[in-house]
Every structure is written in C-alpha cells, then in structure tokens.
Specification:
The complex is a heterodimer of chains A (322) and B (289). By secondary structure, chain A is of the alpha+beta class. Chain A folds into two domains: 162 residues, no CATH class; 139 residues, Cyclophilin. Chain A has five helices and 19 strands. A seven-stranded mixed beta barrel of chain A has the order 12-18-16-17-14-13-19. A six-stranded antiparallel β-sheet of chain A has the order 7-6-9-4-1-11, with no helix packed on it. The radius of gyration of chain A is 20 Å and the shape is elongated. The model of chain A has no long low-confidence stretch (mean pLDDT 96). Chain B has 289 residues and is α+β, with helices and mostly antiparallel strands. Chain B has two domains: 82 residues, Gyrase A, domain 2 (2-Layer Sandwich); 189 residues, Cyclophilin (Beta Barrel). Chain B is built from seven helices and 16 strands. In chain B, strands 6, 7, 8, 10, 11, 13, 14 and 15 form an eight-stranded mixed β-sheet that branches. The mean pLDDT of chain B is 95. The chains are: A alpha+beta (322), B alpha+beta (289). At the A-B interface, β15, β18 and α5 of A face β1, β2, β3 and β4 of B.
C-alpha cells in the first residue's frame, strides 16, 4: 500500500499505452504523457511496460510505504528524498516499510514518473488503468490522487541499483527552448504557402493554460488557403472551422488563430482544422516543457516520424540499463 | 459532395484521416458508417481505432504492424467492393429516450445563466420564434416527431450528434455566446441543426429544451444497458424522444436511482437506405406537426 501524505499538484495513475479501442465513444487514450520516461521506470523495477505507475506533474507527491518494495523515479528532476536523504533518479531503489518518499518542484522538465515493483493495483476500466480525470474514468477512483488516500500495490520483486545509461534517457532541455517534430497534415490544404512558412519559421510560446488536454500556443497570425475561405456553410464561419471531424492525438488544432496541440486526454472530435500533427516520438518533449517555454517546429515525413518512434521504442528496454 | 475518389491525409506517425466528401449530407454520413462497419468486419491487423464523423473517418494504426500505404490500399479495396450505396443495410438499434420538455432543471440552468452571465430569451421560446412555430407545444411535437441518426460521437465521452431523419423535423438554433459554464446531466440540447443529450454535467452551448431522466453514459455500469459499455450510443444507432409528464419522469428517475431501469431499445433493427429514400419520396412536405 502507498499512503499518500501529500498528493502533489496533479498526480495520477497511468499505464502504457493507455485506453485504446473506445475513442469512437469519446474516450481518449490517456496514459503517461512522456511514455519514454514512464516505460523506463517500469523497466528499472522489473515490471512489464504496461504496469500502472504514477505521473507527477510540476510538484510531486509525498508518500509513505506500508511494505518493502523497489521503486524508480524517472522523467523530470524533482529532488526526491527518502527519509530526508537524497534519492537518485533513473535508478531502481529499495524502500522499506515505513519509509517516506518526498518529491518537490520539477526543476528540469515538468513530469516525473514513479514505478513500483508489481505496479499499482487498481481495476482496469475499458481495458486500462490510466486516469482520464475530466470524466472520472480509470486510475484511482477516476481522478488525480488526494491527500490521505491509500493506493494498493501489487506484489512484485525488483532489484535495486539498476540504472538507465545517460545516453538512453530523454535529453530534457534546460533552457526551455525545444525543437518539436511535426508532420504536415491532415488539413494542411486549408493553409496557404505563406501560412505554412510562418508556422515552421516562427517561435511559439507555450501558454500557462495548457494541460493533458491541450497545449495552447502563442505566435504570429495564420493565413488561409482558398478552401478555408470559400466553403459550404456547414463548415462554420471562421476560416479555421471545418465540418465536425475526428482529431488525431498530437494534432495541431487551429481554433481561430490559436493553435492547440491536442494531447493525451484531448477531445476526440470537433469543428476545427488540424494543419499539422506532432508525432508520438515528440510527445515526451511536450510532456517535459513548462509554460513560457518556446517551440520551433521541424517538419518530418511520416516515414521519419515512424523511424523516430521505433528508435524510442528500442530504448525502452533492458538494453538501456547499466 | 461525395468525392469520386476518397482522400487519405496523414495525421503524424499513427493516424490517417480519410475524407469521403465535403458536406453535411445524410447519404455521405451513411456511407461513412457503412465503410466503418466494413473496415471493422475485415479485422485489418494493426488498425487500432476507427473514428467516423460527418464526412470522414480518422483511423489510428500501429505502423509496426501495417504501413500507411498498405492500410490505405486495403481500405480502398473495401471501399471499391461496397457497390451501390442503395444496396447497403446497416444494423441500427433504435433507443427510445423519455423527455420532459420545458422542465424545471433546464429552466433553472437558464435562469442561472441569465443571473450570472448574461440575459437571454428562454431557450424554447427562442427556438419557437426562430423556426416560426405556433408555440412550445409544437416545438415538442416536432422534436419528438422523428427518429434521429447518431451521425457521430465525440468531444466528450458519450456525447452523440443526432440528426433528424424526417426532414420536416429539422429546426435550427444558434449557440450560446458566451457558452454556459454548466449544463445539467441529461439535458436535451439543440445547436445548428443537431440535437444531443448531455451525458454529464458539463459546460455547453446548445439551446436547452428538455431533460431525460435516463442516463446515456454510466461510468459505474449500474444499469443493464451498460453491461458492455460506458456510453449508450454508437455511431449509426438511432434515437427517438418520447415526451413524458412529470409523474412519469419522477417514476423513471426513481427506477434509475434504484438501478432497475431498463432502456427501451430494439437491438434487431436494420436501416436500409433504399427504403429510407423511398419513404422520403412519399412525404407530404407541407404537413404540419
């Protein structure tokens, strides 16, 4: 059992790859935002990659353990301590019953991941333990953790002292400037050449009104192609409006003049265009960025995006450990 | 317009948007759901999600199991093999949802909006005026006088976009500006020419004209209709609204609370677009509801 002394800002149970197969009825995939760090936390404690763990956002939790286990903390740096002594990240650590783990503010990155040998024991909802807290689905009672809760753990054996080699960890930008891969489409034909050039050559700032649903960006004005301005009334009034359609997770959804990158808990459909899509291999960068960080986008092909994904998948294994 | 050749558009490393046309059109939406059913039936390895909407399907796929090109090729083979739209029949259960029109809950919500956000006319009266109706009674007769087609689900879990199958029952309604900060769970709304039931207490923008005591989303899966699902409706299903009085409303609400309410639905119903087109031809478009 984990006793949640302090829950942190928004700490939630997640699993990999999240909730798939129910999107048609409006349930998004959810799951860990930075799947690279999450999977490596599980690898460290000897879990299968799909075992449920915790995603800690910006301010991490304080937890007392009610039995011996093995844990690992990956992702953002959160100056963790175990009974007051500094605890290493990216390394499996043995904890004894009664010990207290304290995590603080994320200093480098924004989200860290806590895995426990055996994983968190909550019931699967629609095939997943991931939390979709907007609708109260999955995780621990449907929502982010609260102070005083008791979260059950599965039995599991892990070995302490296993470490992820530096070169196998995501390189979290310490200066807050990120290059984010994007694939053109699906609705790139609604933007004119000037608009595409503007998007790819400009610097974009991440707004503070950003969360696991969407990342809102501030930047220059978009310009539109003819399709966006001469269209049937069912498409809506604004050039960025389109007849309701499905939204790929990762799509750069243009609401008026505000691009919103739709992420893990995003709505499945709506009436705005998606001129670009951030591929899954770049999600960890979104997950680890903070409000006021800046993005520049780099266009990649579908093939390149798939190759990047395979590269990361390959790193999420025992071969990345010392 | 239904395109002669559907368009395939990439969405990153694991999504494809397939555009079958470019307008709000029942035949096009029926085509979308027929193709979605064919793709599902075919069980193409590596297809993870199918998200049909008004005129397009977004698919999620696993690029380690199927390539972009192979997937679009397989979809086109299924599309070409569908033959004439007229010959397609789809399984399409009809759900009957009881509605108390002009109820206390949506009235309270409208009053709260007027008091805390901005004054606006009572939603049913606004719809009566904009659609040149005789009064609220006619609004309820028109709204409950047709079956609705579940054209799409999305935006929020269990939220279905319903379009009327009887063209004589198609009304229009503007959206709230600014939107409401809350809407009672079970509210029946109307926006553009689409009606919906709010699956949960959420913000909203549709005009609100009634309330159903019957859940369309049940995360705890308490009622029998939710044994294999959290959300009642799927694209291609149909909905009929049954006007009820307050006494019946209170009775149904108690049954829902007890966990004994049984949804009225027909799992066996099929929808034939040939028969639908033939029926449309017989309609007296001047008939009054």
């Amino acid at each position: 059992m984990l006793e949640i002394i302090k829950a942190g800002l928004e700490t939630s149970v997640q699993d990999f790859p999240g909730r798939w197969g129910h999107w048609e009825q409006g349930f998004p995939p959810s799951g860990p935002f930075d799947m690279w760090s999450f999977r490596l936390a599980n690898v460290l404690v000897g879990n299968a990659p799909e075992a449920a763990g915790l995603e800690c956002q910006f301010v991490g939790p304080k937890i007392r353990f009610s039995r011996d286990t093995t844990i690992a903390l990956t992702g953002a740096t959160m100056s963790a301590t175990l009974d007051g002594k500094p605890m290493p990240q990216w390394e499996s650590v043995a904890v004894a019953a009664g010990q207290e783990l304290t995590t603080g503010f994320a200093t480098k990155g924004a989200r860290s991941y806590l895995a426990f040998a055996g994983g968190i024991d909550v019931p699967a909802v629609l095939g997943s333990r991931a939390t979709f807290h907007m609708a109260g689905v999955g995780g621990f009672e449907g929502h982010a953790l609260k102070d005083g809760q008791q979260v059950p753990l599965n039995k599991g054996q892990g070995a302490p002292g296993r470490r992820v080699r530096d070169e196998c960890q995501p390189a979290i930008a310490s200066d807050g400037c990120w290059t984010i891969d994007v694939v053109r489409g699906p609705n790139d034909d609604w933007i004119d050449d000037e608009g595409h050039q503007m998007f790819l050559e400009s610097e974009w700032t991440l707004q503070s009104r950003s969360n696991r649903t969407g990342y809102r960006l501030t930047g220059p004005e978009w310009t539109f192609a003819e399709r966006a301005t001469s269209k049937g009334p069912e498409h809506g009034e604004h050039p960025s409006n389109i007849l309701d359609h499905g939204y790929p997770v990762g799509s750069v959804n243009l609401c008026g003049q505000t691009p919103i990158i739709l992420v893990s808990d995003a709505p499945s459909a709506g009436g705005f265009i998606n001129p670009y899509t951030v591929p899954s291999a770049a999600f960890w960068k979104l997950a680890q960025s903070k409000p006021n960080d800046t993005y520049r986008f780099r266009e990649v092909s579908v093939d390149e995006a798939q190759a990047l994904r395979r590269e990361i998948d390959g790193l999420c294994s025992e071969t990345s450990l010392n | 317009m239904i395109y002669d050749e559907p368009r395939f558009l990439p969405g990153g490393d694991r999504y494809i948007e397939m555009e079958l046309g470019d307008e709000l059109n029942f035949d096009l939406n029926f085509l979308v759901h027929s193709l979605t059913a064919k793709i599902r039936e075919a069980g193409i390895g590596g297809v993870l999600e199918l998200l049909p909407n008004m005129a397009s399907i977004v698919m999620a796929y696993d690029p380690d199991r199927i390539s972009y090109d192979d997937l679009t090729r397989e979809i086109m083979t299924l599309y070409d093999a569908m033959g004439s739209l007229e010959n397609i029949e789809l399984l399409s259960p009809v759900y009957t949802l009881p509605v108390l029109y002009f109820d206390h809950r949506t009235r309270e919500c409208w009053e709260d909006y007027c008091a805390t956000i901005t004054e606006k006319p009572y939603d049913p009266d606004l719809m009566v005026e904009l659609n040149n109706l005789d009064g609220r009674e006619q609004l309820a007769r028109i709204h409950s006088g047709t079956e609705y087609w579940v054209a799409a689900l999305g935006f929020y879990p269990g939220l279905a976009s319903l379009i009327s199958l009887d063209p004589r029952c198609r009304m229009t309604a503007p959206k709230y500006n600014p939107p409401r900060t809350w809407t009672p769970k079970g509210t029946v709304g109307y926006g553009g020419s689409v009606t919906c039931v709010y699956p949960d207490r959420t913000p909203g923008g549709y005009q609100i004209i009634g309330h159903t005591p019957v859940p369309v989303c049940d995360l705890e899966q308490r009622l029998p209709a939710f044994a294999d699902r959290l959300a009642l409706l799927r694209p291609g299903d149909r909905v009929r609204f049954q006007p009820i009085e307050r006494e019946e409303y209170d009775y149904i609400e108690r049954r829902v609370e007890e966990g004994t309410y049984v949804h009225t639905m027909t799992a066996y119903s099929k929808f034939s677009i040939r028969e639908y087109h033939a029926w449309l031809e017989t309609l007296d478009m001047n008939a009054q509801f």
